[in-house]
Amino acid sequence: MRRPIRPWLRVPRRRRPAAARPKGGILLPVLIGIGLAVAVIVLIDAALRPTVTELAKAKVKNAVTSIINDAVNETLSSEAISYGDLVTLGKDTAGQVTVLAANTAQLNALRTEILGRILEQVEHLDSQELGIPLGSLTGFATASDLGPVLPVRVLTAATPTAAFEHVFTSSGINQTLHQVMLNVQVECTLLIPGGAVDTVVEAQVCAAETLLVGQVPDTYLELPGGL
C-alpha cells in the first residue's frame, strides 16, 4: 500500500555558493582614486607655482632691500661717516673745485662693514615674515591677507657683493649734485612649497652726497687701493 504523498514536505534546495569576488576588486578603485588625487595636485601645483614663485621673490626683494638700506644707514650713523670722509675736494684760489679725490681706504672699510651687516640679517630672515597668505593667490586685494600662510624660507644666501659708483647730476644753473652710490647685489636660494628657486636682489643706496657749485672738475683721483 502506497504512502500518501505530503506536498508540504519538500527537500530543501542547496544554495549555490556565492561567486568569489575577483582579487583586487577593492584595490583597483583605491589606486584609481589615488591616481586622480595626485593628478589634481600636480595640475594645481603647475597652475599656482609661477604665482607663488613671483610672490615669494617679491617678498624677499622687499625684505632684503629694507635690510640693505638699514645696514647702510646704521653703519654711516655708528661710524659718523660724512661726505668729507669719503671724498676730498681740491679747490683753487677762487674757491672753485678743481680736483675730486676718493678715499678708497675708507670706502673699502665702509663696504666691508655694510656687507657683513647685510649677510647677518638676510640669514636670519623669519619664514613667517616672508610667508604668502593663500588669499593672495586669488588675485583679490581684499583677500590678500586671508587664509593659511605658505612658508617661504631663505635656504642659502651667497656673500653679497657691492661696488661704489660716483654719480653727477645737474641740479640747476652752475650746480652739480655729486652722489657716492653703493650698488649691492645679494643672491639667495628660496625654499617654497614645491621646491627651491634662485633669485637675485639688487639695490642702490646713496652713501654720501654734496652739491658742487661751479664747473665740475675734469680731474678725478682715487687714492691707492681702488674702489
Automatic annotation (TrEMBL):
The chain crosses the membrane at residues 24-44. Keywords: Membrane, Transmembrane, Transmembrane helix. NCBIfam families: spo_yunB (TIGR02832). This is Sporulation protein YunB. It comes from Flavonifractor plautii.
